[in-house]
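Troubleshooting log. The previous run stalled partway through. Resubmitting the same two chains, unchanged.
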Amino acid sequence: MRTAGIDIGTRTVKVALADEESGILSRAWRTGGFDPLGAAAEALAEALEIAKLTRSMLDTVAAVGEAAGELGVDRVLTEVGAAARGVREHHPEARLVVDVGAESARAIRLSEDGRVLDFAMNEKCAAGAGAFLDSMARVLDATVEDLDRFAEGGSGQVKLNSQCVVFAESEVVSLLHRPTPKEDIARAIADSIASRTAVLVRRVGLETPLVVTGGMACSRSFVHALAKELGVADCRASEDPLFSGAEGAALLALAGKGERS
Amino acid sequence: MSGEFWRWKEAAWRDETADVRTAESRTLGVDVGSVSSQAVLLADGKLSAYASTRTGSSSPDAAKKAAEMALSGVGLTLEDIHFTVGTGYGRVNVPFANKSVTEIACHARASHFMAGPQVRTILDMGGQDCKVIRCDENGKVVNFLMNDKCAAGTGRGMEVIADLLSVPIEEIGPRSFEIDTEPEPVSSTCVVFAKTEAMAMMRKGASRETVLAAYCSAMARRVAALLDRLDLQPAFFITGGIAKNIGVVRRVEKRIGMQALRSDIDSQIAGALGAALFADAALAKKRKKEGAK
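Second attempt completed without errors. Output:
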């Protein structure tokens, strides 16, 4: 049996192919923008090409994400289940998954055998998600990698007062003009997002090992800040964090999970 | 940043008939807000000149710029002013002020002046916060509520949407009515989410006007919820920059079932006008005290 998992995020679309023998076969991603469905088709075509397969050779195509129902796939899965499954493939010991994408942030607590016990997510505010980091990087004219590098030299003495993404942008501008070292600002940004994400973790109950996934797992300073905020040593970024949802969807589809659509 | 559709017009106004040089009292109110700053000149208690500018990154500079813009039109400098009151988020950063007063007190005082003593409920929709103020027949604050944690329902939120849809911010209100049916509001709790919802609407073929309507409607829903919490009493008046956005104002009025009083005075200068009125009163008190000695 061979499957594809498609994860339609707010910013990017990810695809992973899997089969029973070798697990994950290939991965590809595209920027979603105004046309996430077109991006999904392109990413799927690329993933098929890498694995030297054609669409007709797939038994099941499963999708997660906001527009998953519009894709015309065989199965639709939950983002929580897919992220958890994807992380457990690389980190079978994970008991808590923190999945932070562009606009979503979730804390998922798992049983020893990987079942979802509880989860919490941001519903009203993007302050604890990747959109916050994106906005700040734009204001500072820096990349996420730059911010990680700056944050290492940050004193931790500067804190952002604003929680809101929009207000924090203005606050960062005024900090820059004060002037405040960019190292301190970068550290304050990571601390601010982590403090919001930690609220979700506390809501489901802290558990370790903790694995961070989603686009924000690429931010080293965020993962550090979250570990510090929660006071845990066993907190790491997932392997291929962008693809946890897509891989999880493909693997769950292999097991026959998901709603037929 | 491309386009700068958010950029509202900086303005200066003066009363051509006023003779500010011969006035016995010249008082200034300066409101340094998080997004915009205003200065208002009163000559013998009459509104004589004002200016509105962007705050930028330095509050003292914005205070000075707004004051100079207002005063230069009528041929005055700061030295000609008898008393200055600072207000707003940056009120402690008005270096030339004799005193500072909270913007809540200033908005109440100004609303009383702008719309009359019947005003009891004031909605101030500013750049970075939204306040509901209850005042008495003398324009004194009785109670207030505010949201300053989230950009949804504030001027900054509206600026984000102006840029996203490439619609000049002054056109948002009128254009939000160029629709056949009123759409469901977008998320009223987060500008980032609302932005994504707006993009999804456009993708599904909604016109810019429909998206604007959905956004104005979300903002109206949010401020109406704040108004509900303070038990709405007539008469109702709106101050702040968003009072100029008819797309939000009409939808707020519809939600709460009450019309806002209208004024000919620019709603965006309410804070500075209130400060200037406080300055006028403080000057009169000071002179009386000096005269009694």
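Takeaways: Chain B is about 40% helix and 20% strand. The first strand of chain B starts at residue 11 and ends at 14.
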